[in-house]
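Input.
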Amino acid sequence: MIVLLSCHFAESSKETNTSIQEEVKGEKPLLRVSQTDTSIFCNFIEWASSNQLAAQSLPEVVVDVARYFLGKPYVPHTLETEGEEQLVVNLREFDCTTFVENVLALSYCLKSGRHEMDQFTFYLQQLRYRDGEIEGYPSRLHYISEWLVDNEEKGLIDIVSNRVGQSGAAEKINFMSEHAESYPKLKDNVEFIKEISEIEHHISSYDLKYIDKEQIDSFTDSIQNGDVIAFCTTIEGLDVVHLGLALHTKNKLHFIHASTRGNKVGISETDLSEYVRNRKNVYGIFVGRPKQVY
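Output.
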């Protein structure tokens, strides 16, 4: 009933593109969501309900949710709003990370049995922020290595590449602090740069295992539909350069992602192995498996 009332409000509102900034006392943070995004959420829930999506296995749900957003535009920096750090809800457009986060949050929402906006935003916050808590810009999980580790600790992700991959040389992570001028929230904030630098130092101590680009073909059967594929990069100071969701199709392992190629959400044109081999700045992948939630 809550969802139906919310949907009716969103669809009948004349200001469907007006952003709302709502401060909720207690455990909930500042929330930034538009009437348009509320309407998209409600339409999605209606579609998922009519297709009995929640009755499927989690991998099937993740893939079907990802497919639901095929063709949506790729837009970078949608989380970079002015003022205090907020939980930004944007189901209209995605970058590679926000696409994965939103698909997983919607999938967890469906499988939890509570198909309400509050449940969706709860999972989105858990996925996006360290320990699930919003405590300013540095609390966002900017690096995918930490995103994987933190979400494994919260029980949302299982880093399967740690079981089948190989250890790499310790990487010095410092891209954000070394390029602070490229991040509006960092360039004029010495305290944030210091916090980010300390986080980077911690991430640099991780011993995450990866699947080498030349060995991906040997591990395709170990990768399930809906697994998070993180592309490890040789770019100095950076850990991961791209993100997608695994999709087995036509006897090949592809992935769904928000891509600069075509500037939209789509299915990779080549299989995963070929995609990685064709990218000089990618040396392998991390694989994270979404876990069942209740």
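Residues 215 and 273 are 8 Å apart (CA to CA).
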